[in-house]
Amino acid sequence: MNIGKVQEYKVEIGDKEEALTFRFDFEAIVKFEERYDNSLEIINKYLNREKQYTNLIKILSCCCVEKDFTEDELKKTISFDFQTMKLFDGIGYRMLMGSLDLGEKDNSKKTGKSKKN
To answer: Is the separation of the CB atoms in 96 and 43 below 8 Å?
Structure first.
């Protein structure tokens, strides 16, 4: 079974000249579970667009590779404008959905045939 590749995203934040890497891997999951007793609930609420930005900050604060952000520190670092929020929302969603993908290939795309039940 191909489990897939861990997706990561590099983003310049604040006055940093170097981009920070955000990756939802086992290290991030462990950190997330240690910080939040209801970690799965936070992820589900984010994916269902409930308290979207509150939950996104919680998730992203555990996913940064170079820096161990607190929620408050990350909130103060990220600007609140449409482009930034759109970028981080896209990263959060793709990062989580990519981690939930088991890497199974849909062979109907290769052959041009549709699957029948």
So the answer is: yes
